[in-house]
Amino acid sequence: MSNQQVTELDAAQKFIYTRTNIRRAFNDFDDTDIADIYLQGEDCLILRRDGSQQTYNREPIKVAYTSYTHRLKDFFSYLGPNYRGPSVWHNNAYVLFKGWYYSHALGHLTPNARLQAAWADRFIHLNDVQKVTALLQSDQADLGHLIAPDGLRAQDMPIDFNSSLDTVEDVKPIFGEPWCSCGSYQQQLNNISSFSQEIEGFKPWCIHLSWFNKYREMLSKRTEARNQAPNGTPSKCVAWWYQPPSDHLSDGLFKVLYTTYGAQAPVSHWRNYKPDEHFTQNHAWDLFFNMMEAGYVPFPGRSLPQLQSVVKKQ
Ligand SMILES: [Zn+2]
Question: What residues make up the domain containing 246?
């Protein structure tokens, strides 16, 4: 038995050394019958209800915590009505919708999805961070989050448009780091000194920031692929559809058609991509990036009228 001092978990350590994170780090960890979790030197000390104790090295648990907060959720996790991506809001921030529409075959009928549709274009009329956050994250609505991947800017002040531009001060962010309104991010931010002591080089992060960055990278790759085509009219195109799962246990169906005759090509000029394979929402990111790498430009299938009949049949 080590004679190093046993200490209780501080604010940050309580989020890191949880039974789920210990299980993520150690496959054989039995997370039942735990009385309490302490720290002892380099280890996490597990006290069982029967009085027995075990130790687990802290390092892999920190790694598990970090990779969990940085994980990339599937492409449809944060799309709003009509595959709407993050919507520009004020202060360099965006409204990020939870993917209620795509969670389930009847997802579009849920109260959350209906509220999203009703509110999607109205958030821009509110300009208070607290108010928008409260509305997005209320227990009843749970519509999404406010996110500022390039830092949150102070609210705009009234301007005299006839004054000289030379006197304009630099735009200073009120918070220069990537920011998100979600609970996980805010917990990290509120306990940042304690997190920084525990994890070297710590920066608050969340799954929404990971998703946003990936989405933005995808848009820029798409523009790139499009710009490489003569007159910005690509001949290599992909049309995609998504059919959410019919129950909460299975995966959805991600369907891809491709052509080398341009997005407006008639139905006769399109083919299934890898017809023998079954793609789900978990394949979407990789498929998008691979197709753009090969010079194909993706289009949501529903934006191509000539293909609607094909999809209904399948
Ligand atoms: Zn977040």
Answer: 230-313
